[in-house]
Design brief:
Layout lengths: L5 E2 H8 L2 E3 L5 E2 L1 E2 L9 E4 L6 H6 L4 E4 L1 H9 L5 E4 L3 H20 L10 E2 L4 E2 L4 E2 L4 E2 L4 E2 L4 E2 L4 E2 L4 E2 L4 E2 L4 E4 L4 E4 L4 E4 L6 E3 L4 E2 L4 E3 L6 E3 L4 E2 L4 E2 L4 E2 L4 E2 L4 E2 L4 E2 L4 E2 L4 E2 L4 E2 L3 E3 L4 E2 L7 E3 L8 H11 L2 H17 L1
């Protein structure tokens, strides 16, 4: 991380919190409790790391008042910024640091000379377009959006304000649509005539792909966060402030509600619906719609291969076993 001078007074003045220490104290970086020096700011989000807090050489720690008092009573001598939610404060501090410190050191070019921009493209103010990006005809990109290197935005796709698209993202590739020709056995392409509409303040990780819709648009609402290597199929809808971890796959026409989370490697099958506030565990396979908020897991337990094959074979007979149990229960009740 590049370093530059700022003061604790500047940080607390802009971001709030109760500063314990000298406002004029200078810091030059952000670091973990273990690696921080007297010129770094760190943070503590859990009381179980209080001992690391006590032993830290950080010049200032962002912490709850109760955790700071516990560390101070055990000998911590550094400054602190006290806040009810240190992790949220830390997140905002990293944004402040990047905006106020790092970008002033080497302001990036707004549009890299190697970028290719098509006809009738609309770019909002302060849009940053990285090296080797391609923005196809008719695309619209809102203000303060950043496209890192090698991002592709397909024709007529719409990206809102304040978005971040990391390297290798592809927005608006064709959805996976083919009709079988029974006479010849070949697959006949269905042209994908929709686009992709992405809301404001969306972040999309490296090499993630969002396919354009077949007829209607694929829609990603405001505040959605997508990790790296995610596949979003055509005509998918993802509600506001939902977060998907790496390698998630969402098949075509699935609808995911607002404030949901999907763990890494999970799969949501096509044409299913997930209600708001649904949380899917990593590596789960969602095979039915979920209409009630809550935490859901669908993972077949890992086992040695021979035992797994026996269990898998048994699963095929569960339906008949259930029917037999019902018949036995009826017979028992009758007797």
């Amino acid at each position: 991380m590049r370093r530059s001078d700022t003061t604790l007074g500047q940080i607390a003045g802009d971001l709030g919190g109760e500063l314990i220490g000298l406002p004029s104290y200078k810091v030059t970086g952000i670091a973990s409790l273990e690696r921080a020096t007297s010129s770094d700011v760190s943070f503590l989000n859990s009381a179980k790391y209080t001992q690391q807090f006590v032993q830290s050489q950080a010049g200032c720690v962002i912490a709850r008042q109760s955790d700071w008092e516990a560390a101070r009573n055990k000998g911590f001598q550094g400054a602190a910024i006290l806040t009810p939610d240190p992790y949220l404060y830390y997140a905002r501090f990293t944004q402040w640091w990047k905006l106020r410190v790092l970008t002033t050191l080497s302001p990036p070019n707004l549009i890299h000379p190697s970028a290719v921009i098509g006809q009738n493209v609309q770019l909002g103010c302060d849009v940053r377009v990285g090296a080797l990006c391609v923005i196809e005809d008719g695309a619209i990109i809102g203000a303060r959006t950043t496209l890192a290197a090698r991002v592709t935005v397909g024709a007529d796709c719409h990206i809102g304000e304040g978005c971040i698209l990391h390297s290798g993202v592809v927005i608006g590739a064709d959805g996976f649509g083919f009709a079988p020709n029974k006479a010849t056995g070949e697959w006949v392409k269905i042209e994908q005539l929709g686009a992709v509409r992405i809301g404001n303040n969306v972040e999309i990780g490296a090499n993630t792909c969002i396919d354009r819709g077949a007829l209607e648009d694929t829609v990603i609402e405001d505040g959605v966060k997508l990790d790296n290597l995610i596949q979003i199929g055509h005509n998918v809808y993802i509600g506001k402030h939902t977060a998907l971890a790496g390698c998630v796959g969402v098949a075509g026409s699935a609808k995911i509600g607002s404030h949901c989370t999907v763990g890494g490697g999970a799969v949501v099958l096509g044409h299913l619906s997930l209600a708001d506030h649904v949380h899917i565990s990593a590596a789960s396979v969602v095979t039915r719609s979920i209409h009630k908020a809550g935490n859901y897991t669908g993972i077949f337990p890992l086992d040695d291969n021979q035992a797994w094959e026996k269990n898998a074979a048994t699963l095929k007979h569960l339906h008949s076993l259930r029917d037999r149990i019902k018949e036995l229960e009826k017979a028992s009740e009758a007797s």
